[in-house]
Design brief:
Radius of gyration: 18 Å
Structural class: mainly alpha
Order of helices and strands: HHHHHEEEHHHHEHEHH
Strand content: 5-15%
Distance between the termini: 40 Å
Largest sheet: 3 strands, mixed
Number of strands: 5
Number of helices: 12
Strand order of the largest sheet: 1-3-2
Length: 277
């Protein structure tokens, strides 16, 4: 695992040995090991931190406290999922005291660590028991935008040919094919007038319709229930009002994903999508 992670960090810190060493130190940090015992999930966190140049997720896992002063995150670990959650990638469980357990589906244990990096970013933003469609849509969208950036930096992930990698590739491709026709920016609400995934059995021509019909079906598509936001969420979207996951916040996230044209193009090339001329 350490050798694989070191190779990943060589790409991120090509001319910055101190930056690379800081990430390796994070991987071995005793406090982090107490929260994330599994080396694959620790490597996932390091991969996210390195590629996003963002220490806030790691800081939250290690240092965040509940209102009563207890550790907010108790553990991040693999766990066997069953029943309706059998196919889920990850989830958050909350104790009665508001403490979080971030569980990853044990079926992903032997997948490449980087494929779970953006899931960690997604899951730490679920900080209370209330969840509804607006919350899941905003965090799913944010997580896939993170995966676009990850693939742009590490195109080799597209060729892993594992189940998790195929799902990863599909998520990224669907989002990359969801662009505003005028600006070329990612837009989950833009009607494309043609299938988002030509040649597939999925006829969706709009990302939002695809998400509500095929990706997240726990709530009806018309659900607009608002759920509480949090300070960490606000730090990622300073342009938005993150006090609640509501329609306005989802629209704001859609407008401020921060994926650059260069990152989009690099991810498209990694997936061998038709980029035209």
């Amino acid at each position: 695992m350490l050798a694989q992670l070191t190779g990943y960090l060589d790409v991120e810190y090509l001319n910055d040995p101190q930056g690379k060493q800081a990430m390796l130190a994070l991987f071995g940090d005793p406090k982090l090991r107490q929260k994330i015992a599994d080396p694959t999930l620790r490597a996932s966190l390091v991969a996210y931190t390195a590629t996003a140049r963002d220490p806030k997720v790691a800081d939250f896992i290690v240092d965040a406290r509940t209102e009563s002063g207890q550790d907010k995150v108790q553990a991040v670990a693999f766990l066997k999922f069953s029943g309706s959650e059998d196919a889920a990638a990850a989830r958050v469980r909350l104790t009665t005291r508001g403490q979080m357990y971030i569980d990853f589906n044990d079926a992903r244990r032997f997948e490449h660590f980087a494929l779970s990096a953006c899931n960690l970013f997604h899951e730490v933003l679920h900080q209370d028991a209330a969840v509804a469609l607006m919350e899941e849509a905003a965090l799913y969208l944010s997580g896939v935008a993170c995966e676009v950036k990850l693939l742009a930096r590490h195109p080799e992930l597209a060729a892993l040919d594992t189940q998790d990698a195929r799902f990863f590739n599909a998520r990224v491709a669907f989002l990359l094919n969801s662009r505003d026709p005028a600006s070329g920016k990612i837009d989950m609400f833009a009607e494309q007038g043609r299938p988002l995934m030509p040649g597939s059995t999925i006829p969706s021509t709009q990302w939002w319709a695809h998400f509500t019909r095929y990706v997240y079906t726990m709530f009806p598509p018309e659900d607009r229930t608002a759920t509480p936001g949090n300070n960490l969420l606000q730090s990622y979207y300073p342009e938005c009002d993150a006090r609640e996951f509501d329609v306005a916040f989802l629209q704001c996230v859609n407008a401020h994903l921060g994926v650059t044209p260069e990152e989009m193009l690099a991810a498209m090339k990694a997936l061998e999508l038709d980029i035209g001329k």
